[in-house]
Amino acid sequence: MPVHRIVATFAAAGLAVVAMTSRPMMAAAAAPPAGAACAANARKANLNFTLKDINGKAVRLSDYRGKVLLVDFWATWCGPCKIEIPAFIDLYNKYKAQGFEVVGVVVQDPFVKAKPFAQQYKMNYPVLDGDGRDDLEDGFASLLGLPTSFLLARDGRMCKVHIGLPQTKSIGDAAQIKALFEAEIKALL
Q1: How far apart are CA 152 and CA 100, in angstroms?
Q2: Could you tell me which CATH class the domain 3-11+20-188 is placed in?
Q3: What is the pLDDT of residues 97-113, one digit of tens each?
Q4: Per-domain residue ranges for the chain?
Q5: Is 78 designated active site?
Q6: Distance CA 17, CA 82 (A)
Q7: What is the tens place of the pLDDT at every residue in 34-48?
Q8: Active-site residue identified among 38, 78, 81, 159
Q9: Upper half-sphere CA count for residue 94 (Cβ side, 13 Å)
Q10: Which residues 6+ apart lie within 8 Å of 64 measured at CB?
Q11: d(CA 32, CA 152)
Q12: Which of 7, 38, 87, 151 is disulfide-compatible with 160, CB 3.0–4.6 A?
């Protein structure tokens, strides 16, 4: 089913993805051993995509190979997305020098809204146009809600996926969400 239909179905039904839990992204893989950042047999992402950024420049996802990469699928209308993005900005500033990259992929939203949003939030990482690009599901997985973020190891394995906000003690607690992502990122650096 195309991404836009899945997301529209969630929106129409009024389902909140805020309370959805985070889980490792592994294709037929057991949970990683205690202390491991990523299962050895975790599925690799297909990064063979080129998307336009908010300035019209072509960005190849394959250029991020060898980096710890957070790929965040989001939309300007998405409330939970607005909670996560400030954490991603801070984490990108903190860990970029160690090989951490963030890419925000806008879906289910007219891309013309992305640039003003990115400026308002002072987003310091690439914001790319994924609207109407159902082929991105082949590279990652079906997007069951927004935000959906994938944390990839340097070798491209999908180590974590978060559908909606990660589960924390207090739903939507920005500090706890940032701490959870930070721990996952540090384990892969």
Answers
A1: 10
A2: alpha beta
A3: 999 999 999 999 999 99
A4: 3-11+20-188
A5: no
A6: 13
A7: 446 898 899 999 999
A8: 81
A9: 14
A10: 47, 101, 103
A11: 14
A12: 151
